[in-house]
Amino acid sequence: MNFKACAFLLAAITLAGIAAPVTNHVLANENTVVARQSDMKSMAEAATLIDGMFKGTTSYDSELFKAAAESIYKRSGSALVAHFEGNPVIFGSKASSTIMSQREKFDSLANDLGVYASSLSSAAQRHPDALTQDMRMKAGDVIGLGPFGKKTDPAKAVLSMPAEHAFHMLLQTCTSCHAKYRLKTD
Hints:
By secondary structure, the chain is mostly helical. It has one domain: Four Helix Bundle (Hemerythrin (Met), subunit A). Helices cover about 65% and strands about 0% of the residues. It contains seven helices and no strands. The chain has helices at about 5-55, 60-75, 75-85, 100, 105-125, 155, 165-180. It starts with a helix and ends in a 5-residue tail after the last helix.
């Protein structure tokens, strides 16, 4: 084999060795973004189903209500945190780098989401036949704490709130997370 052929072969092997890890990294990033988006879409669809039942636009079905709540639950907490480990800012993602500097707050919101979803699942199990009045918010129930409100422990607070309130808190958690950790696009 002549020198040019050897040099060409060596260059091709070297480039292949560099390109494979880069390609694998790009594919891993694409898979991460697709998995994030898929889970977010599933949670949004589940929340829409529950919302329809609370609004009366969809008939209450405790099994569907519970399945929707559990769908959100299984995608929240540690599953949601895992989607954003390391550097969450990757091509194709709308994740903000703020997640890295506020990791504890992000993780807390992911866990809060699970608490509210679990509460909704339990409510559906306790109410197999109808969306009852004790699942509904009453006049004067606080929907959220707002930016100046005292932060309470969701795991304790959820024990004394009706399912509809837990649902509103779940939605507020999603909104807070997106407002803080999702890039704004026009």
